[in-house]
Amino acid sequence: MMTTKTLSVPRAPVVWLVIGVLAVPCLANRGFSEEEEAGANDNDNGGLLGRGLLPSPFRGDGLGLRTMFKRPLLRGANVPGDRVKWIRYPSQNEEANARWGDFLTDVARHLPTQYGRKYYSDDRITHAHETTHGINSHLSNHPDEITSGTRPRGSVYGFYVGKDQAVILSGPRLKLSQVAEVIPASLRGSRYQLYCIEQQKYFENHPLYLFDEWVAYTNGASAGVELTEKKQLDMPRNDALVAPLEFSIYSLGLAAAIQKHDPDYLRQNPQFREFLAHELRRATAIYRRGMKLDQFHWEQKLGENLLVQDDSRELREIVPQLFGEDLKLEELIGGKTIE
């Protein structure tokens, strides 16, 4: 029953107190903060990073509070992917070309001068892709140039995503073949055989190689979409924009495989988790933009299969396991469909 009666002064503080109490479980159940991670243990439900901080009655579905607040919280300042600790990697040269557009120019200017034209291509999408490989390789081999302090043990991987933003990650104890095993049949795209199977002979002990390809394909797609939207790129229809989506799937598979074989790595590396979330959002966003353009519109079922097929459940569930049980994959990437 509705009423228009004004709350009396004595009752108003009580109402605000009740609202505050009800809001706490919504805020407390978004996964671990960085401060909590150091002493975290797996919970009774098998969740990797823990669940809520309140008793179970507040975590049930009866009140529907978390559903009510889920969207506003996701749009807030604590969205997974917003807390990547970027390393500033400034321009390394002053290369310019009127045909490149802003994003390709950005990428080209971050390749150190000693590599010359090694990664150049007349195909501007390929140019952005291959130059990203060159930058990532340089960052991986020379991390001390942009970082200070103790170098992580084992393999080190660097990635450049544009706008002077780079990250350095350590690697998990994992094989590339173990990642390939968790990719279900419905999610094996046209690049699966090459990158997940055949490349095992080169990168079996370096599964974060998949991130290198993911970032390179997403950067190439970003350059291509920008130029096409500006009507500065005329090329036959192609599936270049499917690649960021396809490698989003393989990267979710990477996270799922790490959970199986090296769960401590996930627990102890918020930087990996945040970068995964950031690139999932970035890659699927550029994919959606590209699908609106005739040159890149490509029929495929990967997006639909990821969100609805039974055999892809393990990959979908890695998102709430890493970022809090309320957050679903489709919410992280901004929609219930990928098209």
Write the layout of secondary structure elements.
Layout: H1 11-28, H2 34-37, H3 56-59, H4 65-74, E1 87-88, H5 101-108, H6 124-141, E2 156-162, E3 165-170, H7 176-182, H8 192-198, H9 200-203, H10 209-229, H11 242-261, H12 263-268, H13 270-291, H14 302-308, H15 313-323, H16 329-332
Antiparallel strand pairs: 1-3, 2-3
What does this structure look like?
There is one protein chain. This protein has helices spanning 11-28, 34-37, 56-59, 65-74, 101-108, 124-141, 176-182, 192-198, 200-203, 209-229, 242-261, 263-268, 270-291, 302-308, 313-323, 329-332; strands at 87-88, 156-162, 165-170. Residues 1-73 have low confidence and may be disordered. The chain has a three-stranded antiparallel sheet with strand order 1-3-2. Helices cover 50% and strands 4% of the residues. Strand 2 and strand 3 form a beta hairpin. Helix 6 packs antiparallel against helix 10, helix 10 runs antiparallel to helix 11 and helix 11 (242-261) packs across helix 15 (313-323). The chain has 16 helices and three strands. It has two domains: 14-31 and 46-78; 87-332, no CATH class. The relative contact order is 0.13. The chain is mostly helical.
